[in-house]
Design goal:
The protein has about 240 residues and is an alpha/beta fold. The chain folds into 2 domains: about 5-100, Beta Barrel (Elongation Factor Tu (Ef-tu), domain 3), CATH 2.40.30; about 110-235, 3-Layer(aba) Sandwich (Rossmann fold), CATH 3.40.50. The protein has helices at about 80-85, 120-130, 155-165, 185-195, 210-220; strands at about 5-15, 20-30, 40-45, 50-55, 65-70, 90-100, 110-115, 140-145, 165-175, 185, 200-205, 230-235. The strands form 2 sheets. Strands 4-3-6-1-2-5 form a 6-stranded antiparallel sheet. The chain is globular and about 50 Å long. About 40% of the residues are buried.
Length: about 240
């Protein structure tokens, strides 16, 4: 079980651009020395008494002394500018962990994850932990983006699918060159084409509100109980 949210201090040890709009930051924990969290949870960074930004942890809970945040800085707001400015040695204060978008390992149903662009971050944490710790049951990921350049961690998921036959990976994009090998269209359209049966299926969706709603509607039309669709809204 993860601890209740607490005030934490950390130090930046690396910051790198994964794409034009996504920056990944590694934080070495200072207080506490290790962060006890569940895959899929997030931390909150204060920018004044009424301004707080939430960032999902991208790394696996198997790494508790150094955690990784991946942030979409395209909005160019207060949080985006702060992330862009981070450099090794900078102190970071946050509160965490928080959130209930976590995987229930004891659930016997098949797991399908659906992510929209930066919504992949908590799902990456979940999948990393599952396959680092011997999860052998079938699972799948449908990862949608406007174009292939926005599929953060795409190479990692392709590698995961090659190494673990029980894991299926389906990248999907709205726009791509003719040589693109993957799904085309919107996220809910990919879900409609790829999900043939909702029997004993549990779905985790993360992204924007519109996509979450559309994906859920597709699955409900196929006969899925709404409670079998778990979600985390990023915008």
């Amino acid at each position: 079980m993860a601890q209740k949210p607490r005030q934490c201090r950390a130090e930046v040890i690396a910051a790198r651009a994964l794409t034009r709009d996504v920056i990944e930051v590694d934080l070495r924990m200072v207080e506490p020395e290790a962060l006890d969290f569940q895959a899929g949870q997030w931390v909150s960074v204060p920018f004044g008494p009424k301004n707080v930004r939430a960032y999902s942890v991208a790394s696996s809970p198997t790494r508790r002394r150094v955690i990784t945040l991946s942030v979409d800085v395209a909005p160019a707001g207060m949080g985006s500018e702060w992330v862009r400015s981070l450099k090794p040695g900078d102190p970071v204060q946050f509160k965490g962990p928080t959130g209930g978008f976590v995987f229930t390992r004891a659930d016997p149903r098949r797991a399908l994850f659906v992510a929209e662009e930066i919504g992949i971050v908590p799902i990456r944490s979940i999948l990393s932990e599952l396959y680092e710790t011997g999860y052998g049951r079938p699972s799948g990921l449908i990862f949608w983006a406007r174009d292939p350049s926005r599929l953060v961690y795409d190479a990692e998921f392709r590698s995961l699918a090659r190494r673990f036959p029980s894991f299926s990976y389906f990248p999907a994009v709205r726009e791509a060159e003719a040589r693109w090998r993957g799904e085309r269209g919107e996220a809910h359209e990919a879900v409609d084409r790829l999900v043939h049966s909702v029997d004993r299926l549990l779905v985790y969706v993360c992204g924007g509100e519109a996509t979450i709603k559309q994906v859920r509607e597709v699955l409900v039309r196929k006969g899925m109980d709404r409670k079998s669709v778990r979600w985390e809204k990023f915008w």
